[in-house]
Design goal:
heterodimer; A: mainly alpha; two-stranded antiparallel sheet; elongated; B: 118 residues; mainly alpha; 69% helix
């Protein structure tokens, strides 16, 4: 199966669980399982090629100019991780089906899980490192959703936030590191980067790149000092813990270190950083784990410890270390996932994960006991189980590693880590399952249904099989190791065997296991000592750090962004002034190119009206209705100005917009006070007047100066004039620019308009859903209302006008390509025709007769415009390429058919929908309780009057 | 004519600016509308002023600059959408608090309470 499909399947499949949510839990988990299984089988079809040592490649150019391409690569290492992700994913899905409670939203859970799975598979199959980064961030996001899946738990939300903050921060630094790496190698493709070991290691930028990349890997894989987020992420449902936090996501950092091993490893910096961090993490995790009473917390810290172990092995930079690391990744995934699932079973059955409340469970849950014990013994490094084999290899590697010229350092710490590791494994078995049966469990435990214990049991079978017959997996381990080494080192001539003879590693192993037993025997005094020792609490530090960052951001942002409108105004004004002064000081100005055109009396009259209206607004703005009328005059004069200065399209748009804006403002004024009280002091008004005057003079001066001069650079307008008819098939250049040359802009434009309308709708909904609703319903009008709210004359007139208005809109729409007009103007005209019906007969009457919801009209508009654009793909042209032809259908004249008209139709629909939806919101607020909604179009209708009433009126 | 257009831009800016500096929402919205006119006319004027030469191809030798017109056309329509949103927001604020001051500072205590809840 194509690599693309393997990566895409989980993402596509992520839609299904949500859709199947209503179909029941079995269907929901079934479809998730099927999708994962399909991807798994697809992966397996590539097994022969991978076994032959080939690298399967898939390449789709995405943004080649940025070096960002959708290139996927499958080699043994990627195949191994993908198998882990999908294989354990299958078990987890089956387990989660039984684990999740009835009230949990399963569709949501599996959707997140599949998103995560897809992102994870994406990481391990990416060839392009920029693509890898995208998937990397996706795992952080989807794991955030999964950790916080139980939204009602504060620990879940906090844990999710912490994990996102730490891994997200690491992700950012990884982006930096990867970009540097790509710059050094001259390519963002791993296949190229991995060939350039010398170039990269000799570069001056090697160290910054290494530090940034390691920061990303260490945060993701919970290495010291970033280990603290992992235990807090355990607030997630257990399937998530088992999947993300033991088998897959936390291994992403390890994967990346292994992936980049050929180019990054082998330097002293790499050795000290990686081995050092790994060693500390390993010992620290193991020590903390033993004193944890929560089963999952214990496992979490043990995971931290084991990740440290693997990191340490990768850090040594030897081929044998890499091989041991690979083998331990494999083993850890099997026993740790099994242990997590067992912990989940115990939690599920006893309703507690507190080890102090458990014990004696072997009598009650023999199957779980067998599974958990085998897995834990493997983790402790007991022979005949797989954990023993890789731990021996680790100790052997540690024995020959010298850090800081101190031969005992690495082996000593390795033994110490193993010792505590063995101790917590023994504690897990001893304090949970062994001992006497208790009678104070929070619930009566018994073995769960097979659905819960089968998945871990399958893993434990692997634990035993690998432990007994390591030669079965040796070729696989060697194959993967070859992929990790990538030609940078020779594959070691070592064999995975249970018995290596009396080598130092064996003695170290014996010391560790014996020591572990001793620690367990001394557990109670040690616990008292541990509790008495003061130690830093990671969460407190983290919270303090976050609080510090938050207050710092507040300090920086609040002066600019304090919620007061005047502050924003001031900031903007200062910015404009600064930019203006800069331009004034640095710019030069030549002599005028044009003579001043002489204005006639009509122009002066129009100008005077505009000035009078604007000044009137300033003087009389306290009377709000009056200022609304005055602004109408301003708008009218601006439209007239547009006509005069050769812009008929603008004039038509301005005047129609003016109408709908005024209606909208009137609707709003209905609720707002009609007068603005005098509040500001004379001083303040003088100051504001001075500011306004300066702004006005500056704007006027700037306009005057450039109006008399030619543009400094050649305008692209000539191109538009020259190509409008030839290329766009229209003689109205403005319209051709809108629907053709700059069609993409217009497409964005109508989407914005639609969003604005939907926003108004949402605000209305929020208002009507809140306490405002009652106030609105019971509000008393501040002036007397007309007795005849829907006068007959208006109803009759608007009804008669409607078809005429629609015809005009249709005409304006059709002529738009060649004459002034087009979708925007036609849409506004049609909206005005419709709004008139609302005004005449009232909101409810009109709404009851509305056939298509305004949302749908907006959506249809955007869709029509978008599909028109997409249509050009089918003829191999870029988005929104237009085409036109002339046809002749007798008896009509020859006429033009253009795809641009279809696009304009989308604009038309979006404008109609947006205008109507906006006004709709305001009208809905206007409904009141004490006014009866009439089912008639007009209040007084002679036809409805009885003979008596007519007589009474003197008829 | 250039003087008229330039001073119209100036007067619209000044009037808009003064109204924007008022303390109640409605005059501020009207002020922003005036500023919108000023900006639109300014943008339009960047194509320079031409009388009697609309950009409708008809064999004439001289046309006015069509590009600023196309830009301003969409700007007019978008400004309607934005005005509508702002009006609705101010309306919601007024209905919710019975106060149409623009500088209604968020209550610090309410802020803190909200943070505690999360």
């Amino acid at each position: 199966m194509s690599l693309l499909l393997i990566v895409a399947l989980p993402f596509l499949g992520a839609l299904l669980p949500g859709l199947m949510n209503q179909a029941g839990r079995a269907a929901c988990s079934g479809v998730t399982f099927t999708v994962t299984l399909a991807a798994f089988i697809g992966l397996m079809t590539n097994l022969p090629a991978v076994m032959a040592g080939d690298t399967v490649l898939m390449r789709v150019d995405w943004i080649p100019t940025l070096g960002m391409n959708f290139t996927l690569m499958l080699d043994a290492l990627g195949f191994f991780f993908a198998t882990l992700i999908l294989g354990i994913g299958l078990l987890i899905i089956a387990y989660a089906r039984f684990y999740l409670a009835r009230e949990d939203n399963m569709g949501e859970f599996f959707t997140y899980l599949l998103l995560f799975q897809g992102a994870m598979v994406g990481i391990v199959l990416s060839d392009n490192i920029l693509l890898l980064l995208v998937f990397w961030e996706l795992t952080s996001l989807s794991s955030f959703l999964l950790i916080g899946y139980w939204k009602h738990l504060p620990e879940g939300r906090q844990g999710a936030r912490m994990a996102l903050a730490v891994t997200g921060m690491g992700g950012l630094s990884l982006i930096g590191g990867m970009l540097i790496l790509g710059q050094i190698a001259g390519s963002y493709d791993l296949s190229v980067i991995l060939q350039n070991r010398d170039l990269i290691q000799q570069s001056d930028l090697y160290l910054p790149a290494l530090l940034l990349i390691l920061l990303g890997c260490f945060t993701k894989s919970a290495q010291f000092p970033f280990h603290f987020w992992l235990p807090h992420a355990m607030a997630a449902p257990t399937p998530v813990s088992a999947y993300l936090h033991s088998a897959t996501m936390v291994k992403a950092g390890i994967f990346l270190m292994a992936r980049l091993w050929p180019v990054l490893s082998g330097t002293p910096e790499w050795f000290v950083l990686v081995t050092g961090a790994g060693l500390i993490t390993m010992v620290l995790g193991a020590v903390i784990a033993i004193f944890k009473h929560d089963l999952k917390a214990l496992l979490a810290f043990s995971t931290v410890s084991h990740l440290g172990l693997i990191t340490m092995l990768l850090g040594t930079g030897t081929a044998f270390g890499a091989m041991a690391a690979v083998f331990h990744i494999m083993n850890h995934a099997t026993f740790k996932a099994a242990l997590f699932m067992s912990a989940g079973i115990i939690d599920h059955e006893t309703h507690t994960r507190d080890i102090r409340r458990l014990g004696g469970l072997r009598h009650l849950m023999p199957i779980t006991f067998a599974i958990a014990t085998l897995a834990a013994l493997s983790m402790a490094g007991i022979p005949l189980l797989n954990g023993f084999l890789s731990k021996e290899m680790m100790l052997e590697e540690a024995a020959s590693t010298v850090l800081f010229n101190t031969p005992w350092l690495v082996p000593g710490f390795a033994v110490l880590g193993s010792l505590f590791s063995a101790a917590y494994c023994f504690r897990l078995i001893g304090h949970t399952f062994l001992g006497a049966k208790r009678d104070d469990y929070p619930a009566s435990p018994h073995d769960p249904p097979a659905g819960l214990w089968l998945p871990p049991a399958l893993l434990v079978v692997l634990v035993v099989v690998i432990g007994l017959a390591p030669f079965l997996v040796e070729p696989a381990v060697k194959g993967i190791t070859t992929a990790v080494l990538g030609g940078a080192a020779e594959l070691p001539d070592a064999h995975i065997k249970i018995w290596h003879g009396l080598v130092p590693a064996l003695y170290m192993s014996i010391v560790a296991v014996a020591g572990g037993l001793v620690v367990l025997a001394l557990f109670n005094p040690l616990l008292r000592l541990w509790n008495a020792t003061p130690r830093p609490e990671a969460k407190t530090i983290f919270d303090a750090l976050v609080a510090g960052v938050v207050s710092l951001s507040r300090l920086l942002i609040l002066p600019l962004h304090n919620g007061a409108f005047s502050r924003y105004g001031a900031v903007m004004a200062v910015a404009v002034v600064v930019a203006g002064v800069y331009a004034w000081v640095t710019g030069t100005i030549g002599a005028p190119d044009h003579a001043v055109q002489v204005a006639g009396p009509i122009e002066i009259a129009g100008f005077t009206m505009l000035v009078a209206a604007a000044s009137g607004m300033v003087l009389l703005h306290r009377n709000r209705l009056l200022s609304l009328i005055l602004i109408g005059i301003v708008g009218l004069m601006v439209s007239v100005g547009f006509v005069f200065f050769s812009a008929p399209d603008l004039a038509m748009t301005q005047i129609t917009v003016e109408v709908v804006t005024t209606i909208l403002m009137l609707l709003a004024l209905n609720f707002l006070p009609n007068y603005t009280p005098v509040e500001s002091s004379v001083l303040r008004r003088t100051r504001d007047g001075a500011v306004a005057l300066v702004a006005g003079v500056a704007a006027a001066g700037l306009s005057f100066h450039f109006l008399l001069r030619d543009p400094v650079a050649a305008s692209i307008s000539d191109f538009h004039l020259a190509n409008s008819y030839k290329g766009g098939g229209g003689t109205n250049v403005v319209n051709v620019i809108l629907v053709d040359f700059r069609g993409f802009d217009t497409f964005g434009e109508i989407i914005v308009l639609g969003i604005a309308a939907v926003l108004i709708y949402a605000l209305t909904e929020a208002l009507l859903g809140g306490p405002v609703r009652a106030r609105l319903l019971n509000r008393k009008p501040d002036t007397k209302l007309a007795g005849d709210m829907h006068p007959m004359m208006m109803v009759v007139l608007t009804r008669v006008l409607l078809p005429v208005v629609m015809l005009v809109a249709f005409f304006i729409f059709l002529r738009g390509h060649n004459e002034p007009g087009g979708g925007f103007i036609a849409g506004l005209i049609a909206s005005i025709g419709l709004v008139m019906q609302y005004m005449a007969s009232g909101y409810s009457w009109a709404t009851a007769r509305q056939r298509y919801p305004h949302h749908a009209v907006i959506g249809a508009g955007v869709l029509v415009a978008g599909l028109t654009g997409i249509g050009s793909w089918f003829v191999g042209k870029p988005f929104l390429t237009s085409d036109f032809t002339y046809v002749r259908i007798p008896p009509f004249e020859k006429f033009e058919l253009a795809t641009a008209a279809l696009f304009d139709l989308g604009v038309f629909l979006a404008v109609v929908g947006a205008v109507m939806l906006s006004l709709d919101g305001f009208s809905r607020l206007a409904r009141r309780a004490h006014i009866k909604e009439s089912e008639h179009p007009m209040d007084i209708n002679p036809e409805r009057m009885t003979d008596e009433e007519l007589k009474g009126q003197g008829a | 004519m250039e003087i008229l257009v330039a001073s119209a831009v100036g007067i619209l800016t000044a009037a808009g600016m003064y109204l924007v500096l008022r303390m109640r929402t409605f005059p501020v919205i009207l002020g922003v509308s005036l500023l919108t006119y000023a900006v639109n006319v300014f943008l339009f004027a960047s194509g320079r002023l031409t009388v009697g030469a609309p950009p409708i191809l008809n064999g004439a030798t001289r046309y006015t600059d069509p590009l600023p017109q196309a830009l301003v056309l969409t700007a007019i329509v978008i400004s309607f959408g934005m005005t509508a949103v702002v009006v609705m927001i101010s309306l919601g604020a007024y209905l919710g608090t019975d106060d149409d001051h623009v500088d209604d500072m968020p209550d610090a205590d309410a802020d803190a309470a909200q943070e505690d809840a999360t």
